[in-house]
Design a protein that fits this description.
This protein has 166 residues and is of the alpha/beta class. The protein has 6 helices and 4 strands. It is globular, with a radius of gyration of 18 Å.
């Protein structure tokens, strides 16, 4: 049946996705959840927003070790371009969001420089550059792709796509 509770009279051919949280603790719990989702028929996974390559590679390596199979070809990595300090502070309060030291330092440095010089857009520029660097690293780990989560800033998303050749 569909959302209006009407019979579809035909089989659907949906490409079914599910979430994956590579920063979960303990990580083996997330691995078992992902395996159960695959058994249930999930075709692909999208990660929560990440700010470093490490959680993704750690998850993929541990999954392969524990389950004896790779799933990198079923994973889209979520990335979030930081474009304001308020947004950055908000992200730090969300469960499952782990911001690496590099992101923290770069955004704080951009904020400091922006305050000192009065020049606008430095935080967004830092966020874009950090995401471009992250996309370049993601390209080398065998995942299916990235999901850029622009949080309302399509301009930043376009810059990331252009600079990283997506």
């Amino acid at each position: 049946t569909n959302y209006e509770n009407k019979n579809l009279n035909a089989k659907t051919n949906f490409f079914i996705g599910a979430s994956l949280s590579p920063t979960s603790s303990p990580l083996d719990g997330e691995i078992y959840k992902v395996k159960r989702k695959l058994i249930a028929g999930v075709d692909f996974f999208q990660t929560q927003g990440v700010f470093s390559i490490d959680p993704i590679t750690n998850f993929l390596n541990l999954y392969e070790k524990m389950m004896g199979e790779k799933i990198s070809d079923k994973v889209l990595v979520g990335i979030v371009p930081i474009w304001s300090y308020g947004m950055f502070k908000y992200l730090l309060t969300l469960p499952g969001i782990v911001v690496g030291e590099k992101f923290l330092n770069e955004v704080n440095e951009a904020r400091k420089k922006q305050k000192e010089t009065g020049q606008k857009g430095l935080i967004e520029e830092a966020g874009v550059n950090l995401c471009v660097d992250l996309v370049d690293k993601i390209k080398g780990i065998g995942v299916k792709g990235v999901h850029i989560m622009p949080v309302g800033n399509l301009h930043a998303m376009k810059k990331i796509m252009d600079k990283s050749g997506l």
